[in-house]
Amino acid sequence: MTLPSQFVKSLTQALNRRQVARGVALLDGVADDLGALVPGQPDTAGLLLLLAQWVDVGYRDHRLLDSLLARFPLASRRKLPLDDYLRLRMVDGFRALSVADADRAVEIFDFVLRAEREAPDEYLTTLAHFWKGRALRKKGEYELAFEEIVRARELAQKTSGQAMLTAVIQVHEAWLLFQKGMRKEALRLLTHAESALKATDHWLALGNIESARGRIVRRSGQYMKALDHFDRAIAIYSAGNPNHRNLGRTLVNAAYVKRLLALRMRKRIDAAASRGSAARAAGKTPRADEAAAQRARYQDLSNQAIGQLREARRIFTLHDYAAGIGSVLVNSGFLHLDRGDIDRAAREGVDAYRIGLEKNDHILMARARVLQAAAENAKVDEQLGEDVDAALHANHARHFSDEALELARHTQNRRLLAGACVARGMTAANDFFQEWELAKRCANEAADLMGEGESDHLADDLAVLKSRVMQASGINDTLRGWSEGLLGDKTFQQVTEEFAEIVIPKVWQREGRKISRVAESLSISPKKVRRILRNAGLLGTLHSDAHP
Question: pTM of the entire structure?
Answer without folding.
Answer: 0.84
